[in-house]
Write a structure and sequence with these properties.
With 462 residues, the chain is an alpha+beta fold. The chain folds into 2 domains: 289 residues, Aminopeptidase (3-Layer(aba) Sandwich); 123 residues, Alpha-Beta Plaits. It is 33% helix and 21% strand. The protein contains 12 helices and 18 strands. Strands 1-2-6-3-7-17 form a 6-stranded mixed β-sheet, with helices on both faces. A 4-stranded antiparallel β-sheet has the order 11-13-9-14. The chain has a 3-stranded antiparallel β-sheet with strand order 4-5-18. Helix 3 crosses helix 12. The chain binds ligand BES and manganese (II) ion (2 copies). The site of ligand BES has 16 residues, from loops.
């Protein structure tokens, strides 16, 4: 029986072309203008799972976009791996910054990806990474090496908060029963140094609205005499961090898990170059919470960031006006033990309390989720590490990521199983940014590594 390496070599052009076809469908879940495309993508995922060898594939209707469920059960007494991924993507804007159209995938070489990378929205997050699992299944079925049962659950609302997935999981606990959940929707350190994500941050996402006068006013006739909502909003937002860049919301840090000096020393061992980091982003310096280094600031520490801010006149030229309203979208990334609903409440209370007389403030929560940490002594972690070690030639390093996949904490709560985050993307792959891409090397390495996870997971489960 041919092994996975030669199978990938033999079929790589088809693997790449199939992914390219999937990337052509603009499955932007945030924008209803694309809703038919999201549904078409769900169908395409269903087809791909059937072709790869699932015995049962269903398009499961939800209050939102459909969830694709697929399975191949070879023996109920063997372990079951549940693969999760998402087929929706982030909006592509700003369009003018793409060097090729976001839904017309092309392969281009980059410094980090000398063998080429596929440029398209969703290439890495998450169509490319999700599809590695479909192709790994194809290999295991074709070569008769699938060592256990497998279930797939691929959703279309991850980028907008996974509302329907929570609904689906609560209603299908029996169907989704598994021994481990496997997800490729994170990154790794570099193509030479694999890593396994052992933590994800939680999230609270809110929108704020500051209202002053009941209409836009002449900024000469009224300026200085009434509160300007944009001035006030800017001041309120600025006050949310102190001079050391700590967040000033009372109670915000109360439950934050503090890492021991040993744990921080362990983290500091992961290879990282501050110079390269700054150069890649064209920055003259980094910025953040006093007392923590970059790799801590973006993983084990909570944050508060404005994601968008608007109000007033933004057209050409100048218009002398005091706007009636100002708005901002704010995300807070949370760390273990912080509860997102509690933090949302603390934010709302504090933000409302700091509003000066002369304006009114409205806070609307969007979505959120809990953070996640997973131990490195589980069978799943060990199996993943053995798989990476075999395909990359070096063991993986455990790394806590700054990103969020809120549904992971819910999986643990509802399905009582651990999640293994086997990501193959790189931070430089520009997920959520213009020119998102996924290395051909990474895509094929992922397909190669996944079957080994199954093999070792089953071996270690015995
Ligand atoms: N795949 C990302 C999350 C991610 C990326 C985690 C890289 C770790 C490393 C996911 O699609 C995502 O973008 N999640 C959102 C949260 C969601 C609720 C919108 C995020 O982190 O902003
Ligand atoms: Mn993702
Ligand atoms: Mn994403």
């Amino acid at each position: 029986m041919e092994n996975i390496k030669s199978y990938v070599q033999q079929h790589k052009d088809r693997f790449i072309n199939e992914l390219i076809e999937l990337l052509k469908i603009p499955s932007v879940s945030a924008d209803t203008a694309y809703s038919q495309d999201v549904i078409d993508t769900a169908e395409a995922v269903k087809e791909s799972l059937s072709k790869a060898g699932c015995d049962l594939v269903e398009v499961c209707d939800t209050p939102g976009y459909p969830i694709i469920y697929g399975e191949k059960i070879i023996d109920p007494n063997l372990p079951t791996v549940l693969v999760y991924g998402h087929y929706d993507v982030q909006p592509p804007d700003p369009m003018e910054l793409w060097t090729s159209p976001p839904f017309e995938p092309v392969i281009k070489k980059t410094e980090i990806h000398p063998e080429g990378a596929i440029f398209a929205r969703g290439a890495c997050d998450d169509k490319g990474q999700m599809f590695m699992h479909v192709k790994a299944l194809e290999y295991m079925v074709q070569s008769n090496t699938l060592p256990c049962n497998v279930k797939f659950m691929i959703e279309g609302e991850e980028e907008v908060g996974s509302k329907s997935l929570g609904w689906f999981v609560e209603r299908n606990q029996e169907k989704l029963k598994n021994d481990v959940i496997l997800i490729s929707d994170t990154g790794m350190i570099s193509n030479q140094q694999p890593s396994i994500t052992t933590g994800l941050r939680g999230l609270s996402y809110v929108e704020v609205e500051v209202t002053g006068p009941n209409r836009d006013l002449h900024s000469g006739l009224y300026g200085g005499a009434v509160a300007n909502p944009i001035n006030v909003l800017a001041k309120m937002i600025a006050s949310l961090h102190d001079e050391d860049n700590h967040i000033t919301i009372p109670g915000f840090y109360d439950k934050v898990e503090e890492l021991s000096a040993d744990e921080r020393a362990e983290m500091a061992k992961a290879p990282f170059s501050l110079e390269k980091y700054k150069n890649a982003l064209n920055l003259n310096d980094v910025y953040g919470e006093k007392g923590y280094v970059t790799n801590e600031r973006n993983s084990i520490r909570p944050t508060l960031d404005v994601n968008g801010i608007w109000g007033g006149y933004q057209g050409e030229g100048a218009k002398t006006v005091i706007a009636s309203k100002a708005f901002a979208k704010i995300s807070m990334r949370l760390v273990p033990n912080q509860d997102w609903e509690e933090i949302t409440e603390l934010f709302t209370k504090h933000f409302t309390s700091i509003a000066p007389a002369g304006v009114t403030v409205k806070v609307t929560p969007h979505h959120g989720g809990q953070g996640y940490v997973t131990p490195i002594d589980s069978i799943g972690y060990k199996a993943a590490n053995m798989a990476y070690t075999e395909t990359f030639g070096v063991p993986a390093i455990p790394v806590r990521s700054g990103g969020s996949i809120p549904i992971v904490a819910l999986f643990e709560k509802e399905l009582k199983s651990k999640t293994i985050l086997m990501g193959f993307g790189l931070d430089s792959d520009a997920i959520h940014s213009p020119n998102e891409h996924f290395g051909i090397f990474n895509y094929l390495k992922g397909i190669e590594t996944i079957p080994l996870f199954y093999k070792y997971f089953v071996e270690l489960s015995k």
